Amino acid sequence: MNIVVGFKVVPDESLIRVSEHKLLLDVPLKLNTYDKNAIEEAVSLKERNGGRAMGITVGAGDRKAIREALAMGLDEVIVVKSNDLDVYGTSMAISENVRGLSPDLIIFGEQTVDSGTTGVPGYVAELLGMPFVSNVRSFSLEGKKFVAERGMVSYSEKVEGELPAVISVGGEINTPRIPSVKQIMESSKKPVKEVNFSLETKVKIKDVKPLVVKRKRVVIKEGDMGKAVDKLIELLRSEGLL
Q1: Worst-scoring range by mean pLDDT, 54-63, 126-135, 214-223?
Q2: What is the rounded distance in angstroms from the CA atom of residue 192 to the CA atom of residue 76?
Q3: What whole-number distance in Å separates Cα of residue 53 and Cα of residue 69?
Q4: What pLDDT does 105 receive?
Q5: E strands along the chain, which residues?
Q6: What is the pLDDT of residues 144-199, one digit of tens each?
Q7: Separation of alpha carbons 147 and 159, rounded Å
Q8: Nearest to 4 by CA among 166, 236, 116
Q9: Cα(35)–Cα(106) distance, integer angstroms
Q10: Where are the alpha helices (DSSP H) in 188-224?
Q11: How far apart are CA 225 and CA 222, in angstroms?
Q12: Which of 5, 26, 133, 170 has the most Cβ atoms closer than 10 angstroms to its Cβ?
């Protein structure tokens, strides 16, 4: 079985700070959180069904983040060096580099934590002519046939299909493994292939600014709890929130 995982290296959002009207993005890089679930699912499927699990990432090729992906169990990683690509460009870069690998299954995390985008998996599926199942929270295989459970907001959905396919997974599907010291050491011996890709993007980001919310700072000073609640309800109604 030939599995490909798309993952992104992103700024560590826990370290991003705001200075006046700017976001300070010069922080250490890390593996996108949801992509760890995608890597875990790929490695688990490889362990149960045999084959290989290869990673592909576009843009920031941070060595530490890539080694973490390899230490989790990927056999190899392709790093696509490129200009700043939008969702479509990233999808093109991935599809062009995995097409020749004839993957049975391509797995992505359901979204990125830096830009909140979810479009790449669907684009890649369309470009490769594969079916796409999003928001997968459980996945099982029997030969070439698969059963996926999609977690929606208020209900779940069972989808049956046949490989090859593209899926995106969320945090519910598994618990990503923590690599051992031995696996981290061995990851330095695994192959990392760098390729170049360039494309004129359809979207260009000129600036990134923090969303500033002006709070009303209303404080209800009332000794009686019942009266305080009544005032709160009255205030919320006056704001059109109830």
Answers
A1: 214-223
A2: 6
A3: 11
A4: 97
A5: 2-6, 9-11, 17-19, 22-24, 29-31, 52-58, 76-82, 105-109, 132-142, 145-151, 156-162, 165-169, 192-197
A6: 999 999 988 888 999 999 999 999 999 999 999 999 999 999 999 999 999 999 88
A7: 6
A8: 166
A9: 12
A10: none
A11: 7
A12: 5
Taking the C-alpha atoms of 89, 91, 95 and 98 in order, what is their torsion angle to the nearest 10 degrees? 110
Q: How far apart are the first and last CA of the chain?
A: 54
Beta carbons of 26 and 54 less than 8 angstroms apart: no
Find where tokens 């843009």 sit.
59
Residues 97 and 120: their CA atoms lie apart, in Å, by 14
Q: Read off the pTM.
A: 0.84
- Indicate the DSSP class of residue 87: H
